[in-house]
Each structure stands twice: as C-alpha cells, then as structure tokens.
Design goal:
It is an enzyme of class 1 (oxidoreductase). This is Catalase. GO terms for molecular function: catalase activity; heme binding; metal ion binding. Helix content is about 30%, strand content about 15%. It contains 20 helices and 18 strands. A hairpin with a 5-residue loop joins strand 6 and strand 7. Helix 3 packs antiparallel against helix 4 and helix 11 runs parallel beside helix 13. The chain is globular. It binds CIS-heme D hydroxychlorin gamma-spirolactone 17R, 18S (HDE). CIS-heme D hydroxychlorin gamma-spirolactone 17R, 18S binds next to strand 2, strand 3, strand 4 and helix 9.
Length: about 700
C-alpha cells in the first residue's frame, strides 16, 4: 500500500494543511498583507505605533508558540503508516482491525526517549517510547508501548517519585537526559522491584542503533474478549523486520555530539528514501483460566511472559510510510492514552495500568490546554464523534440543534446509546471483591528471578556491556552508600556481576540485609530474601540481541572514503552491489569539492572528513585507487582518515579496504587484525564484496570487541 493510497487519515489531515500555490500572505483574519518587512512607524525613523495590528498579531502568536513539553517522553519522532492484519484473531477478540484478514488500518506512531527535555540528545541511555495510534473504524485504539517489556515500578503511585528521581536534580538542573546521577540511583537502590528493568536499561537495548531496529512491548497484560465473551490475557509485541540492534556506549556518547538528532534523522531519511520501517505485530495469548499458571503474577508489570512458555504469534505488519508534514501539528500535538480502547480489548487490574488510565487525560489537558484536544486533526477519530459534550477552549465542531443532554425528546433522543451488537463498548463483567486496602499483593514480591533470567540470557559481550554500563552510571554517583546499596542489589542477581561492578567502584559486595538498613520498618523492601526463586525458564533466547535477525543490510549506511584518483570502476561495482542489497552509500572526501575518478568521471561527496564521523555509518569502505590513497595519506588528511577507520574498528564495524589501500591499512590499528576477524575485508580476500555484505548484516563483531579495543 502506498502512503497516499487508502489512507483516510492522510485525506482527513489534508483538509487542514495550507497549500502554497500562488497564495498571498494574510493575517489570521484573512486580510492580505502588503508589507511583511517593516512595522508601522510615525515617520521613517520614528517610534512604532500601537496601532500596528499586523505586528501585534504576528508577535503575539509567536510569543505563544510553545506549549508545555510532555512531563516525560518529551523528545519524540513520529511517522504515519499502516497496520495490515495477516492472521485473524477472531477466536480471541472482536476488535475488527484484528479480525478482518487483510484489513489495513491507518496508524500514527511516536517514538520517544523518556527522561530528557524536548531538545535533548537521541542517544541517551534510556527507555524508548513506542506509542501507536490505530485509527480504527470503531474509534481510536492507542497502544502506548515501550521498547522494553517491563517497567521500573509496580504501582502507579510510585511514578512521580521515579520520574523526579531520574530527571535533572532540582537544585542545579543537572544532568540532562541521563540516569547516571545520585537521585536516580538512590531511588533505585531502595526499590528492588526496579531490578529487572535496570537489567534492560543497562543493556544495549537502551542505546538503539535506530528507532527502526527496536522492539515494542505493551508491557502490561491486557485482555482480549471475543464475540462469545470468552477472555484471554494478551501481551503485545512489535518485532522489527531489520532485527534489534544497538550502538556501543562510547559510540552513543560521540553521536550525541556529532548528530544529536541521529534517530530522528535516520527515521525521516529512511521513510523519504522509501526504506519503510516494518515490524511484525505479535501476541502472546493466555486463556483466562490459566491466569495462575505462572511463577509470577500476570498483573505485575515488572515481569515478562517468557516466549519459551507462551510463544509470540505473529498476526500483522506495521509499516511506517509517510513522514509528518508538520512536526508540531502532528508529532507534538498527538495525544496518546492507554484508555483509548475499542470493543474486544479490555484492561487488567495491573495497578500500574490502572493509574495510567487516569494520568493521560490529565496530562493532555495541561499540555494541550483544552478538553477539546481530540479535535486536533492528528487526534481525530475516523469514526464520527457524536455526544453531548459541548464548548470549552478552542472548540472546532459546530453542533446543530437545541439538545446537549440525554435523555431528550426535543432532539429525537439523539445520539443514541449503541447496543453491544452495534459496537457499543461494554467492559468485561469481571467479578471483583475485596477489602479496601492500600497494600502490594504478595504475588508481586519476587523481584530478582526475572532480573536473573534476563542477565543469564545475554551473550558474553552483552553481559560485558551491561556490567560496563552499571560501572559508568554508578561511578557518577557521588554517595558511597548508594553505590554500595546497588551492588548489594546486584548480588541477588549474579555474584560475578556484583563483584565486577564493586571492584570498579572500590566497594565491597555485601548482600543486602534489608532489615538492618536504616529504612522505615514497614518499607516494601523488607521481605525480599526469603522470596528469591529460580525462574522456571532459565535462559530465554528471545532476550538476547545475539539471536536477532542478521540477514539483511537493507538501509544500512556505508561510508566510502575517497579522494581524487579513485578507481571509478571498482568503486562503482562495489557501490552497485551494496545498493542492490538495499544499503545506502554516502561518499566522504577531504573536502566537498567534486572528486575525479581515474577514468575521468566526477563524483560529488556528501560529507567531508571533518563534517561527519565514523559513528554515523554502519560500515566503511576505503576506496581503491593509487592517487586517491596518496591524497588520503598526506599529513592534512592522514590523521582524519585513520581516526575514521580506528574508531569504526573499535566500535566493531565492518571495514573494507579496496585494492591499492595498503598504506592506509598498515597505518591503521586494523593492520594487526587477527586473521579470524570477519569484519575486516581487504583486497586480498576472495569474494570480498560478499564477505563485506555478510559482515554488515551481522551488525557488529561484538565477540572480538576486547581484542579490537586492545589494538586501538
Ligand atoms: Fe507513560 N506517560 N506513564 N508509560 N508513556 C506519558 O503522557 C504515566 C508508562 C509511555 O509519544 C505521559 O502524553 C504514568 C508505562 C509512552 O506521546 C504521562 C505511568 C509505559 C509515552 C504518562 C506511566 C508508558 C508516555 C506524558 C505509571 C509503557 C509517550 C505525556 C502509572 C507501557 C506517548 C503524555 C507519546 C507518556 C504517565 C508508565 C509509555 C504523564 C502515570 C508502563 C510511550 O501521562
């Protein structure tokens, strides 16, 4: 499906966009403006006049351009797309967009970081939001998901505490978009329920290569209800067709300086290039009667349902195929809400989800300023809205007639309630009873088993990255007691992990003896040790990125380093081969001046050696050509070229050395490469181009990271 085809939402939005064909500049009242360069003054050099309604209108509007940024998830990137159902879920839910095979539903997706302000870097170590608005015929359905399947806390009442702890510290507003500071780790050290999420946050999942290369998870258990009223618990998953891939932490920090819009730009460019990002949409289905079959509580948002215990069934494809026309109107004003739901889907009693159901309307009121935020084009349902809600700031709808109440006879009784058979939403009739209590369920008390499961499921390089992330973060913590408490927590997950981190922090590993801590007697962390369990699933392959999709180089960015005199034929042949596999080639030269090839043609570099960096590419090619190599090796260029290569090498990327590039190769750190490094391909290798393609598809040679770093 092409973006412009069959996209009702696109048509709907078009009505609101201004076209610019030969149109004249006007005020907001439609008055044509004759001079937009000068204000109205008393004489050429005289004072400006209050009478200048054009100046005042323009400046007043400008003064009010900013709206409050989201209190969390402020920095975001959005795109339009389509969801296509490939397998009907009619046995499980009556939601039409999930039952009518082949049905295409327009969507708007917003990805975000959580902690940073709107202008912060994309590459912060953080959770990513993955919020999807499905514009279904039955109303908007929002799946407000994250790229990690669990959360820090079990109860909504702790959310403001969590967010206050991770945000910049209130006295000096430092640090921006970073969890590596005292207040975050102080809070975490006292909240053992966060440990599973901390494993995810310290893993490479928190520094994705691209928004297109990360998973999405609904986190909570939701409910599906079918036509017969049968209930299943459901967990939602998005799995990227390009696989789940991340950058190195050192690389993330450099990207934040070189291109802090790295993810936003990558998403935008991919869609502009027609490399539409795609995800498989999957569900884990659990019959209602099996609710108690697990060694954890399905209502606990700090737990996953291991895929080994309940496989993910793929039922659809999410494709993003159109960039927004206007960031503010669409990506900034889009208002998600887990409570935007449709018949066939329902909530569970997960106490985190229950709190979210309150929070999101409230936040939109404060952020968008009016209960009419649903009338903003990006938020409009494609199903027409009829109700008796009226007026309010910025009301758009002009409702005819006298009645705005129900029941009425004057308006003929309209609008009518819909029966269930007509698509009216009816909540699941769940029997609920219990004393009114403010307590945590005992079934939520095991905080370490799944943290262990996650850690044990990681490959060796992933474990090392996780250890190093903890060392980095905790080294920024100034309070020794906080560091010690975190290490004490880690000891419940893995003794080696705790020891390694402790060693680098200069603290001892002491398994926390909670009752001896100076905590309130009724603190929720007291009962822990006795509840430590072995998870039923010991290792889950789905949790390691090592096992992700590695069979494509589609949309990967390959930097070709070149100078005058490159071998036009050889370079072009490699370029064509890479592009035929879907990769994107960009030329990097000492300057932006055109580069002459040895066969007399000209190439236009996109970047100069100083305007970009290796961290912006997935792989490098050092182009062949004797004269080109000579120019790359003159003193002015040499250190830049070698820095490029050595940095890419350190970040475990694939590097290809064309013929004649021996002088570059021997001057770089790569020269001492072990023969078994499959990421370094030289002129001497057989089937070099194929080997290079395979190496790029592997994403990185993480297994050789230690060796490569030792040589750097
Ligand atoms: Fe959110 N969250 N959240 N959250 N959340 C917001 O709503 C909140 C939680 C998530 O791109 C806010 O419109 C509470 C879990 C995403 O616009 C706010 C709790 C998950 C986005 C809010 C949670 C999320 C938000 C801020 C604990 C993963 C960005 C702006 C009870 C399943 C949506 C806004 C976008 C945004 C509250 C926990 C995902 C304040 C109270 C768990 C992806 O309403």
């Amino acid at each position: 499906m092409k973006p412009e085809e069959n996209n009702e939402k696109a048509d709907q939005l078009k009505q609101y966009s201004t076209s610019n064909d030969n149109e004249k500049l006007t005020t907001n009242q439609g008055l044509k403006i004759n001079n937009n360069q000068d204000s109205l003054k008393a004489g050429e050099r005289g004072p400006s006049l209050l009478e200048d309604f054009i100046l005042r209108e323009k400046i007043t509007h400008f003064d009010h351009e900013r709206i409050p940024e989201r209190v969390v998830h402020a920095r975001g990137s959005g795109a339009h797309g389509v969801f296509k159902l490939t397998k009907s879920l009619a046995g499980y839910t009556k939601a039409k967009f999930l039952t009518e095979l082949g049905k295409e539903t327009p969507v708007f997706v917003r990805f975000s970081t959580v902690a940073g302000s709107k202008g912060s870097t994309d590459l912060a170590r953080d959770v990513r939001g993955f919020a999807v608005k499905f514009y279904t015929e039955e109303g908007n359905y929002d799946l407000v998901a994250n790229n990690m399947p669990v959360f820090f806390i079990q109860d909504a009442i702790k959310f403001p505490d969590l967010v206050h702890a991770v945000k910049p510290e209130p006295d000096n507003e430092i640090p921006q978009a970073a969890s590596a500071h005292d207040t975050f780790w102080d809070f975490i050290s006292l909240m053992p329920e966060s440990m599973h999420m901390i494993m995810w946050l310290m893993s490479d999942r928190a520094i994705p290569r691209s928004l297109r290369m990360m998973e999405g998870f609904g986190v909570h258990s939701f409910k599906f209800i079918n036509e017969e009223g049968r209930v299943h618990f459901v967990k939602f998953h998005f799995k990227p067709k390009l696989g789940v891939h991340s950058v190195a932490w050192n690389e993330a920090q450099i990207i934040s300086g070189v291109d802090s819009d790295f993810h936003k730009r990558d998403l935008w460019e991919a869609i502009e290039n027609g490399d539409y990002p795609e995800w498989d949409f999957g569900v884990q289905l659990i019959p209602e009667e099996d609710e108690d079959r697990f060694d954890f509580d399905l209502l606990d948002p700090t737990k996953i349902v291991p895929e080994e215990e309940v496989p993910v069934e793929i039922v659809g494809t999410l494709t993003l195929n159109r960039n927004p026309d206007n960031f503010f109107a669409e990506t900034e004003q889009v208002a998600f809400h887990p409570g935007h739901i449709i018949p066939g889907i329902d909530f569970t009693n997960d106490p985190l989800l229950q709190g979210r159901l309150f929070s999101y309307t409230d936040t939109q009121l404060s952020r968008l300023g009016s209960p009419n935020f649903h009338e903003i084009p990006i938020n409009r349902s494609i199903n027409t809205v009829h109700n008796n809600q009226r007026d309010g700031h910025m009301r758009q709808q002009i409702v005819k007639g006298k009645t705005s109440y129900d029941p009425n006879s004057i308006g003929g009784g309209c609008p009518f309630q819909a029966m269930m058979s007509e698509g009216g939403f009816v909540s699941q009739q769940e029997r609920v009873s219990g004393a009114k209590i403010r307590e945590r369920s005992k079934s939520f008390v095991d905080h370490y088993s799944q943290a262990k499961l996650f850690y044990n499921s990681q490959s060796t390089p992933e474990k090392e990255h996780l250890q190093n992330a903890l060392i980095f973060e905790l080294s920024k913590v100034t309070l020794p007691a906080v560091r010690e408490r975190v290490v004490g927590q880690l000891a419940y997950i893995d003794m080696f992990l705790a020891w390694r981190v402790a060693e680098k922090l200069g603290v001892e590993v002491k398994k926390l003896d909670w009752p001896n801590q100076s905590l309130p007697a009724d603190s929720n962390i007291v009962e822990l040790q006795s509840e430590e369990k072995e998870p039923k699933t010991k290792v889950s392959e789905a949790l390691s990125m090592k096992n992700t999709v590695k069979n494509t180089i589609k949309s990967r960015k390959i930097g070709f380093i070149m100078a005058n005199g490159i071998d036009g034929k050889e370079t072009n042949a490699l370029k064509i081969k890479l592009e035929s596999e879907g990769a994107r080639v960009e030329f990097i030269a000492p300057s932006l001046a055109k580069v002459r090839t040895n066969d007399g043609s000209e190439l236009t570099p996109k970047h100069s050696l100083t305007s970009t960096a290796s961290v912006c590419f997935d792989a490098l090619v050092i182009c062949s050509g004797e004269n080109s190599v000579k120019e790359l090796m003159i003193p002015e260029n040499k250190h830049l070229v070698l820095h490029f290569i050595n940095e890419a090498y350190k970040h475990c990327k694939a590097v290809y050395f064309g013929s004649d590039t021996e002088p570059v190769y021997h001057n770089s750190n790569v020269a001492s490469k072990k023969h078994e490094d499959p990421g370094i391909i030289t002129w001497a290798d057989q089937d070099a181009a194929d080997q290079f393609i395979n190496a790029i598809a592997q994403h990185r040679v993480w297994d050789l990271e230690m060796e490569r770093n030792a040589q750097s």
